Amino acid sequence: MAGSFFRRFNRNKVLLLMVLPGALWFLFFSYLPLFGTIAAFKEYRFRGGFWNSLINSKFVGWDNFKFLFNTDAAFTITRNTLLYNIAFIFLGLVFSVGLAILLSELVNKRLAKLYQTSMFLPYFLSWVIVGYFAFSFLSMDRGLLNHILGYFGVDSMQWYSDPTYWPYILIFVYLWKSIGYSSVVYLASILGIDRSLYEAAMIDGASKLQQVRNITLPLLKPIIIIMTLLAVGKIFYADFGLFYNVPRDSGTLYSVTNVIDTYVYRGFKVTGEIGMSTAAGLYQSVVGFVLVMVSNFAVRKLDKDSALF
Amino acid sequence: MSKLKKRAGLALAATTALSVVLSGCGGNNNEASGSGSGSGSEKPVELIWYTIGTPQKDVDTVMAEVSKYTQEKINATIKMKMIDWGDYQQKMQVLVASGEPMDILFTSAGGFDYVQNARKGAFLELDELLDKYGQGIKDTIDPGFLSGSKVDGHNYGIPANKELPQLEVWRFNKNLVDKYQLDTSGIRTLESLEPLLKTIKEKESEVTPFGMDKNFVPYVPYDYLVTNMPMAVKLDGSDMKVVNILETDEMKSALETMHKYYMAGYIAPEAATTGSTSDLTTSGKWLLDRAQTQPLAENLWSASYGYPVTTTPASDAIITNTSVQGSIMAISANSEHPEKAMEFLNLLNTDPVLRNMVDSGIEGTHYEKIDDLHIKNLDASQNYNMPSYSLGNNMLLYLNEGDPDDKWDQFKKFNSEGKASPILGFNFDSTKVATEMTAVQNVKEQFWASLMTGTVDPATFLPKAIDEFKKAGMDKVIAEAQSQLDAWVAANK
């Protein structure tokens, strides 16, 4: 047994070496910190190093979790986090798959590369910068949008104090920033589809639309399911940068911009309780884990081959 | 199946190996500490000093020079680590929580909260050390600082001797004041600003009459229990009752005035989300704003903006917890050499040679002396440009070119004229209501900036905010604060 292990190890050592950085990363940043989860049940106080402090801090049971559920805000932030993420997952999927299909059908490949690159670029911008981009459009006195509205004789809007339009603005900004990146994944798998399938379909007289519906989409299904399952696992994590920087932390917009992550951040600016922020993180992970298991289970019931595990 | 077990076994082995390595490190540390305190009398001790400010190129060079001096005086060398302004709070939080070796660290009401971290056990309690090695500190710095920075009756840090009270002023852009011959002599209240703002609004359409960012809060004669939280006590000390500041008549009328100013266009439309007004001060396109002052502050402001700035008071000079805890050096609870650290802090706050070296660098390299009191910065000073306020006793510092000889006497006079807030020395412990504080903080962020800058109408938003605060558990927080305050008052009679 041992011999066979080493033989296999030897045979795959190059591949294993390639896995090593990623494996180490997960070990250090995902598995080792798991022990720190204990902090969620402690009133963390400093005493020597981290482990010492952790062990010596008072055990408080579920007290650290109370702040997430005790107030009216709990409903708002859970609702906002869930609804935005559902919108992001759904619209993100539709737009990035659509975009990938359009790009793959472009005859001029150089132009396709140009489009792809320019849509990919916003992904690399930090949310702080995106926040200022949005501000240059939405500023009350100097914003582009109010100038355009003024041109049509519409009064200037106080964008940063009126929550009405923010769900749309946030979703738009999110899609603008992210679909370029996610469409690359789909584009790559579309390009991997055997061209002879399309040729056969064309000989049979299938239109472009029929080709997409009967060849591209069915073959994309596994990757769509995987990407969606992964996104579902993060459904309780909101993109902090988006919800904090783009609305410029404007208080009057909180009813539609406050999500779990921003709520936790704002709350701990004052109390700085490590235990309570760990509790919030643990809660998000556990719910995410449960959701992934449930949706994977559902997928397996429907189509065994497409499930993640 | 067996494949899976193998892998799990490997992972387990790796984890075990790693934890051995980790605990090995811990063990070494302990050993080092043992030998350090045992035979420390012969070998010089290295003190690790964390402080706030943009890291400077020449820190190590200057500290080498400082170490020569301190080795001679107290047999200790200094290793200074600077952390930039914006990162200080967060990085220190992690460094302290993970038990990083350090001896001395900067803390204040604003950056790496002094009271909170003292209570969480980040700092060493200094009462005994202060008696033993800190006599110089007790003799030199204003006693108001030491008594005001006590947490639950104990000292956890050495405050920097500087301006003690907090005095709010209206600052005026003198160019505009002169141009329109505005009369600033009668200005003190928020209401008294109106004619000036009106004139500028009418005559200078490009100018923002009333400059402010999202942190602006109209002055009301109350002292806040926690910086920027709505629980406050009346400054005249008449009733020692904790109230929600939004429910007071003073704040209500101030907010109405602010809203009137906002609607009249005296305030920038985006004030509630603006992080800084430096674009206004750089361009000079503002008439007035409010700031905290210290003696000779007008000179500093005028010099840094490049045009004259004048001020008139907007409040009394009050000594508050926040003003006392503006800059503190604490000794880490993890320090391996607390006695030496205390000796060093004592020297830093009493010895002009050391204090000036830490502040201005090496004579002849970073600065040169003009006369006994004054120095001039040399070009190399930009490689060692330290925030003076954060590093210890300010009154030992050389004066800059152009400073009057009696600068520090003016500071002493200013300090002696400050009135103590009735809750000076009382520090609210929010542990019991941490859940409510988180919710209250969120409500505060939701309403605060837009109310304070006048962006929204207090007639509709004030009742709404008060109601939301109640729902978040404000009453429980206030009741807890009140009972702590009552106990404190009884104990300090």
Automatic annotation (TrEMBL), chain A:
The chain crosses the membrane at residues 14-41, 82-103, 124-145, 165-193, 214-237, 281-299. Its main location: membrane. It is found in: Cell membrane. The keyword Cell membrane applies. It comes from the Bacteria. The keyword Cell membrane applies. Pfam families: BPD_transp_1 (PF00528). Residues 78-295 form the ABC transmembrane type-1 domain. Keywords: Cell membrane, Membrane, Transmembrane, Transmembrane helix, Transport. One of its GO terms (biological process) is transmembrane transport. This is Sugar ABC transporter permease.
From TrEMBL, chain B:
The keyword Transcription does not apply. It holds the Pfam family DUF3502. InterPro entries: Bact_solute-bd_prot1 (IPR050490), DUF3502 (IPR022627), SBP (IPR006059). Residues 1-19 form the signal peptide. PROSITE patterns: PROKAR_LIPOPROTEIN. It comes from the Bacteria. Residues 422-490 form the DUF3502 domain. Keywords: Signal. This is ABC transporter substrate-binding protein. It comes from Cohnella thailandensis.
